[in-house]
Amino acid sequence: MADIEIAGIMRAGAYSPNHIGNDAAIFNAAAEQLRKRGYVVNIYSEEQFKLNEIKENVILNMCREQSSIAKLQQLEDQGKLVINSGYGIENCTRERMTRILLGNNIPYPDSLIVDTNEAIKPLLKKSGFQSCWIKRGDFHAMHKEDVSYVRHPEEAQEVLQEYFLRGIKRAVINVHLTGDLVKFYGVRGTPFFFWFYPFDEGHSKYGHEAINGKSQGIKFNLKEMKNICQRAAEELNVVIYGGDCIVSPEGEMRIIDFNDWPSFAPCRNEAAPHIAKAVISLIKAHA
Predict the structure, then answer these.
(1) Strands 40-44 and 81-83
(2) Given 3.40.30.10, 3.10.129.10, 3.30.1490.20, 3.40.309.10, which CATH number is that of 110-175?
(3) pLDDT tens digits for 112-133?
(4) Nearest to 156 by CA among 177, 139, 175, 169
(5) Domain 180-263 falls in which CATH fold?
(6) What is the pLDDT of residue 206?
(7) Are strands 180-187 and 240-247 parallel, antiparallel or unpaired?
């Protein structure tokens, strides 16, 4: 409907590592789909959003900056419709995501949440962790060094010390899972779901896909994967989502990463209409 205006907030470039063009492309494609359906979409940069009053009652956003998320939450509390929710975006930061997924029995790696100034070698050995992933717990990954693969507890301690020296106070440690790495994209409340093997397709943000390497084509239950991701999206309170999971040699699936509004790079044209339809459904439900 032409009388409904939507504020479209782009993601700041610092929060689109190696994917600035892809993030902008899916956002613009979704906005264009909404315009085709009669909605007015006014585009703002994340910086403009932070500095100015937003008059539109519907906010479609890719924000990641902490002050932007706080402003989204404030506007949501005032009654505006915010997609993805500012609370959902915050839930996708590593420590919160880990607690929410494990707390709701959603398949996820065995994990430890630690202070970066802790002596963790005894804890890792007691927990049976050898090779594992150390990830900054306080926020989304912005640099390659925010997600680190380590081969043993001694190396883990060294990396954690580096996090501490960089001013990162909390970290999540996930045990490394062997199997096929699968990347997925979805839109909650729609039938859209897309998956692929990122290493095989040369799709990478930081090059970490090489750790698991070329896929073996392990068979898995696609319906179950969709259900797991749908449950995760509901518990994390995000509508437009993506992430990664590992399929074990036995076909067991575990989410290892879950993101609010990723790039949808390999399926942008297919995803954009579903994003628009989901937004319209939420607008109608919110009216």
Answers:
(1) unpaired
(2) 3.30.1490.20
(3) 999 999 999 999 999 989 899 9
(4) 175
(5) D-amino Acid Aminotransferase; Chain A, domain 1 (3.30.470)
(6) 43
(7) antiparallel
